[in-house]
Amino acid sequence: MPSAIRASTSSDKIGLVTSSNPPPDTGRSKLQSYRLPALDQEFLLGDSMRGVRFQLEYEKAEQALRAWSVRSTIVVFGSARVRENGPGRQPFWYAQARAFGRIASERGGALKPHGHVRDNVIATGGGPGLMEAANRGAADAGAPSIGFNIALPHEQLPNPYSTPELTFSFHYFAMRKMHLAMRANALVVFPGGYGTLDELFEILNLRITGKAPPVSTVMVDRKFWTSVIDFEALIEAGMIARAECEVFDFAEEAEEAWARLAATDLGAHRD
Fold this sequence. Notes:
The chain has ten helices and seven strands. The protein is α/β, with parallel strands linked by helices. Helix 4 links the parallel strand 1 and strand 2.
């Protein structure tokens, strides 16, 4: 180290430790402009830092997923309103989502049976209902699972079954969707409403337009889905091609859903 720098550094340290007459505080140290940017919440939450916040939401989850050696996921969507003891077919849907979470975790590689990475880890939106059921099934198998929660006006609390270190909160829907899609080997969609439909069509559109690797998609309960979405009407009106309905399949219960995914060389594109 050059002598001038060494002397300056030494002098600074001595001054900090031994000075009995610090300069008077002019009040400027209390101003917002003086705060370190990383500690200035008002600055970080301003419009100009939106891109930085977006990057932070990407990187925080990314680092945690890498630390847990998560290479790929199976994303499970479904209604947050379904209850284990709810009316109608709700108990059946809940039981099948829970069973699928267990089956996929045991057979798909989430327990790392083949080496140093985890494949086909269950990932959900982190909330209650059918998301809870899938995370619960993974917990039944002793496997980790992911909860990608979103901050909403009526706050969505994470369910108790996603792995705590893999339970995230997002402000931006776009970044949450990116994390849901970017590691997905497959998508299993249980009955749901606006949110479930939004995520389903996003994944299908990415597949059809070639903007993402092929993602095997299975919708559970054909009667529900064909009553909610009239695919034939879309074809007849020229809105979609019949071939574009070949990028998804139907299943009636958890074992059938897994069998359909396993038959597609699940995750081969990630090798």
